[in-house]
């Protein structure tokens, strides 16, 4: 999560310097939750569909730094080759689907990935996870996707990061239940709540939810309460978040809380953390520098086709790997 | 013995399930019940755990199929009616259609859309959406008009690596019969000359192929030889075959059952006039359904879509230039 | 509800005789619930969006018999003028919207009708209601519509007729919660359960839900448990409903239960009921006979336009009733 | 002082709220925040209880607007981006569009779609959906290209009794400025000759009008007089003005920013060739975006949509026939 924070701070200053292609949406304040999910998952086995505030989860799941900087800086060598950008990047073949913007739409996709594994007889021990915001719980896609996963009893973990706002819209204009976790029962799935500014709490609750899903308990929903510590995107000053909310409990910085927890529990010393920080800053610098000197996409080398099939076909095709 | 159009669809799915372990079927009421139109009758028994009843969640059905395709499966999703794909629109056009371009990972899903009008079905069980889906990059849109095409194009469509919108016409389900399922097998993307002629070309697809042939038969009594071109797939569109036909006849009428603004007929005419303007001896004409929702009452419905009569009328006008 | 049953029996035999235009979908077994809702509503004040199994609710809300027979028999004088049919019929200007087929889609429409009344300052004392099946709870439209109504705290009553099947699909393939009513809490709205084969129970629970909504309690959801005593449509024999289910508690006929209740509670004598029946049979016959002799739609008299505006306009238009 | 295109949209909404008590605004983040693009800035303060933040529920937003319209209101719904209307597709095309035909009760809702591409916006924040919605009977589809049209067409659109899809181009928001909001006010359904000419007609709409004018200016240096026709509304389509232009020039190029299959350019060409074939001295040409999702990187994006260069090239080809 520290890596994510440092990386995102760098992205933010690059954005302000006009160096970024497209928008910048940060996960500041949400790293504890996102990282807890990412570290609970096993790359190569599990699926993880990150959303816009999941830099920490991506890093924890194993996404290389360079995938990020290449995309933000417009290198054609990035995973999306300039065709799609920044927060949309993914590597579906490595278990990390590339989100579309439409909120909620990744929920059934992860369910389908798991469904495939069941049909292939390799589901055991695997989970699929995705994060989602409070606002996205209002989408039909979220509802249909979770319900479908519940019917199929798939090992899907949905972490709802309730950061109290969807862009500028407060929870009061987004839902009317007392707590989003009350939805879990209505879907017949497991439900957990946690203080998302508390790394240890988040890690323990989320890993428990992941464990239950992994062991056959069906879909699990975790609602983490927290606050986005930046604007919706870097173009937004987030002035609609009142000082009351900012200075309240959820306004505290999960990174600071985490550092304290690490030190207090003897997981790391202050010196060690400072050293990590320095290391990460350097890694980030390197990844930025590398991406910056790479070529950008060239329209003349684009093949400009959206189809995998090259028409016209001279004869009917037969499936390549049917048996 | 004869096979119907819907038999062909069922047979194709049976063959796919038998031959390709990556194929599974997902749709409302398609397992034990065999589907609203019985296109999957018996398949759940034959292939346990390969045919699944879906909840009434079209958007999630497609999203789930996309996820399964990412992981190597080849799902066939049945929409109960094409019209209900409107609630799956986002997953089809934004998730499935863009995925290969964005990520390089293909999404070989096939979405079966029971399409087109039948008497008494009304505005929400009659739609022809091929011209909507064809607008989107990344989709292949198939519109079989014959029993054998219904069979082969479903097999071929599932074999394609791209998302396929398979528009099967409900009117043809039981009305259209053939001696054998194994007719002339053309590759996807190639049109067929259903009936050769020399005075005018009717370019059409799906159920309208049969109405066009009827119109051609009537005009044959007056000595007119009308060529009927069956597009088979509306995206990709086989411009070569269309241009060759127009080169022979000099006259073009594009006929479709969908709404009159845009759509397949407009695309056909725009492409022909762009590339084959000099081949035309008369203004190319169009005939579509009327610009209202598909009406419920059979009397209105019959006047809403093109018929052999209205196709004859359009052809006579075209021939009189 | 008796009227609805007799009318629908008639429609069923007309269907079998090939006299009906389009399909026939009956509410047999669901009349107690539908009628309870219809009678709890006030025509001219309230809104009611009936669905396919709501003949009883329509009649109770005040829809004339002739609207029904005209539509089924193809008279051009029916409310939909042959343009749309049977179960889709409505009279939106009389508070009864005309459903589209897409399940769940009427929920936000009723919410919008109520929202309009709030803006117009005439919401007080009004409710809007709609029925929906167990299957339709899986739609995104249902989810978004109820959630929106909950946020706006609109007086919306949604009656979920859980007849255990959606077409052929059993509850087990439709949702994973123990009872659909558990969804109410997740939306932050009122929730009621009732045995839908019991008229007195249904009437009391549904009228209570309507009362709460009317008095400002926000959206209310009622889940009625029952069984469809016919096929999905008259083309379907419903053979997927096992004898176990048919002979179980919910397989009982709500009309018989209701008659018994009426007689036992002294609301009506058996003789009176028989007299009603005879009267209704006659009314239905009359409505059928009248519709049968009316003209069918004539394509030459259709104006074939889907727009209210007649283009081309010779000059910019000004709103007709702007102030 | 100058007004931008987005100012005009804001002003129109302010005027509508002031003059017509039936109007209200509904959309994500449009109240206190003033909208993602600030098209409703300050309006919630000025008109308390007339401007509402919506949940992220586009389908329900439109369903709710339809209900409100049945009861006499004139809602304006803002989609945060046109692309997100894909999840409201069903309520737009099946509920709103069919309602008047089915019931005789009009649905005067206006759906504002921030449309079209801008650099770095990518596949899901750049779409042009006018050619999708225009296929549906019962919808009016507006595509203003000027500051004054943005203003007047929003006023006029809300005054129409039909559901209006108002496609406002995001690229024009702040880039396009005018001295006054009150330009030449044509009725909806009427096209405009933006620039008169005599050698060829470019028929286009929205942001592409400006690219076409730039192309025309370049060709003017070589003595070519290119006429630019701004459709203004793509449905209804003003065929009379288009035909009159083609009658003057004999040459037609249709330009659009949407995907190349079907859509506005195909409809324009099909209509012109059907009714004005004899007016054409050369094959009518089309120029659209490429057949892929809208790419993210500005370098790819600029090559994906028509540009003054590619319009010039298409015109030179057209003029050479
Ligand atoms: C279907 C859809 N509608 C609208 C948007 C535009 N949009 C992007 S992010 C956002 C707010 C999301 O809020 P939330 O789900 O709470 O996530 P957060 O940004 O707070 O992490 C909106 C409205 C979208 N992406 N998808
Ligand atoms: C979005 C959508 N998908 C599919 C259908 C087709 N369909 C019509 S009725 C029905 C079953 C509905 O089941 P339920 O909601 O339980 O109502 P019931 O018929 O049992 O009263 C289906 C799948 C539809 N009308 N709308
Ligand atoms: Mg949020
Ligand atoms: Mg049911």
Quick gist of this model?
With 323 residues, chain A is of the alpha/beta class.
Ranges of chain B where pLDDT stays below 50 over 5 or more residues in a row are: none
- In DSSP terms (H or I, runs of 4 or more residues), the helix count of chain B works out at 12
How many domain modules of chain B?
2
Shape of chain B: globular
Structural account:
The complex is a heterotetramer, with 2 copies of chain A (323 residues) and 2 copies of chain B (321 residues). Chain A contains 11 helices and 7 strands. Chain A has 323 residues and is of the alpha/beta class. Chain A has a single domain (2-301), classed as Thiamin diphosphate (ThDP)-binding fold, Pyr/PP domains (Rossmann fold, 3-Layer(aba) Sandwich), CATH 3.40.50. In chain A, the strands form 2 sheets. Chain A has a 5-stranded parallel beta sheet, sandwiched between helices. Chain A has a two-stranded antiparallel sheet with strand order 4-5. In chain A, helix 1 (2-16) packs across helix 3, helix 1 (2-16) crosses helix 11 (270-292) and helix 4 crosses helix 11 (270-292). The longest helix of chain A is centred in the C-terminal third of the chain and has 23 residues, at 270-292. Chain A is globular. The model of chain A has no long low-confidence stretch (mean pLDDT 95). Chain B has 2 domains: 3-178, 3-Layer(aba) Sandwich (Rossmann fold); 192-320, Rossmann fold. With 321 residues, chain B is of the alpha/beta class. The mean pLDDT of chain B is 98. Chain B has a 7-stranded mixed beta sheet with strand order 3-2-4-5-7-6-12, sandwiched between helices. In chain B, 39% of the residues lie in helices and 17% in strands. The longest helix of chain B has 15 residues, at 5-19. Chain B has 12 helices and 14 strands. Chain B has helices at 5-19, 43-46, 58-70, 89-103, 130-133, 147-159, 172-175, 207-220, 239-249, 263-276, 298-304, 308-319; strands spanning 3-4, 23-27, 51-53, 74-78, 110-115, 140-142, 164-169, 177-178, 192-195, 200-204, 226-230, 233-235, 252-255, 285-287. The relative contact order of chain B is 0.12. Chains A and C meet through helix 6 and helix 7 of A and helix 6 and helix 7 of C. One magnesium ion binds next to strand 4 of chain A.
């Amino acid at each position: 999560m520290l890596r994510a924070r440092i990386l995102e701070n760098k992205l933010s200053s690059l954005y302000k310097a006009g160096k970024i292609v497209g928008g910048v949406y940060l996960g500041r304040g949400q790293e504890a939750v996102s990282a807890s999910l990412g570290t609970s998952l096993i790359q190569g086995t599990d699926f993880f569909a990150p959303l816009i505030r999941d830099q920490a989860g991506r890093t924890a799941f194993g996404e290389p730094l360079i995938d990020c900087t290449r995309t933000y800086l417009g290198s054609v060598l990035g995973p999306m080759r300039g065709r799609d950008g920044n927060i949309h990047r993914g590597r579906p073949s490595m278990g990390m689907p590339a989100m579309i913007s439409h909120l909620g739409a990744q929920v059934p996709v992860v369910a389908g990935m798991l469904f495939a594994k069941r049909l292939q007889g390799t589901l055991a021990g695997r989970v699929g996870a995705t994060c989602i915001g409070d606002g996205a719980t209002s989408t039909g896609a979220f509802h249909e996707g979770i319900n479908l996963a519940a019917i199929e009893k798939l090992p899907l973990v949905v972490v709802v990061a309730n950061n109290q706002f969807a862009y500028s819209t407060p929870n009061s204009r987004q839902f009317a239940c007392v707590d989003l976790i009350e939805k879990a029962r209505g879907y017949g799935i497991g439900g957990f709540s946690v203080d998302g500014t508390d790394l240890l709490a988040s890690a323990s609750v989320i890993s428990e939810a992941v464990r239950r899903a992994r062991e056959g308990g069906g879909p699990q929903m975790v609602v983490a309460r927290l606050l986005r510590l930046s604007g919706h995107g870097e173009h937004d000053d987030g002035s609609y978040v009142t000082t009351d909310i900012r200075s309240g409990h959820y306004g505290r910085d999960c990174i600071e809380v985490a550092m304290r927890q690490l030190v207090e529990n003897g997981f790391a010393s202050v010196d060690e953390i400072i050293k990590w920080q320095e290391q990460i800053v350097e890694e980030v610098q390197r990844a930025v520098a590398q991406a910056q000197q790479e070529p950008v996409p060239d329209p003349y080398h684009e093949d400009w086709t959206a189809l995998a099939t090259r028409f016209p076909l001279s004869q009917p095709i037969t499936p390549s790997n049917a048996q | 013995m004869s096979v119907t159009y819907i038999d062909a669809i069922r047979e194709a799915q049976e063959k796919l399930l038998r031959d390709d372990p990556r194929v599974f079927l997902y749709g409302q009421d398609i397992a034990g019940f065999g589907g609203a139109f019985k296109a999957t009758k018996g398949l759940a028994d034959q292939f346990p755990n390969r045919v699944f009843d879906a909840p009434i969640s079209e958007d999630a059905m497609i999203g789930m199929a996309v996820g399964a395709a990412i992981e190597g499966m080849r799902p066939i999703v049945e929409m109960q009616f094409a019209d209900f794909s409107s609630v799956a629109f986002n997953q089809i056009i934004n998730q499935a259609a863009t995925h290969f371009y964005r990520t390089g990972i293909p999404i070989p899903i096939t979405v079966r859309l029971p399409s087109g009008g039948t008497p008494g079905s009304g505005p929400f069980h009659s739609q022809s959406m091929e011209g909507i889906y064809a607008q989107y990059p990344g989709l292949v849109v198939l519109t079989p008009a014959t029993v054998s095409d219904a069979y082969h194009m479903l097999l071929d469509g599932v074999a394609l690596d791209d998302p396929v919108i398979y528009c099967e016409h409900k009117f043809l389900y039981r009305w259209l019969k053939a001696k054998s399922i194994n007719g002339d097998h053309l590759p996807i993307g190639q049109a067929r000359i259903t009936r050769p002629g020399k005075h005018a070309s009717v370019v059409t697809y799906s159920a309208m192929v049969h109405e066009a042939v009827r119109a051609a038969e009537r005009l044959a009594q007056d000595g007119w030889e009308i060529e009927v071109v069956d597009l088979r797939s509306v995206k990709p569109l086989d411009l070569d075959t269309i241009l060759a036909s127009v080169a022979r006849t000099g006259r073009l009428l594009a006929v479709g059952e969908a709404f009159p603004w845009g759509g397949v007929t407009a695309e056909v005419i725009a492409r022909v006039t762009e590339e084959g303007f000099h081949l035309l001896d008369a203004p190319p004409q169009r005939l579509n359904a009327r610009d209202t929702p598909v009406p419920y009452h059979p009397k209105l419905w019959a006047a809403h879509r093109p018929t052999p009569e209205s196709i004859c009328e359009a052809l006579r006008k075209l021939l009189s230039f």
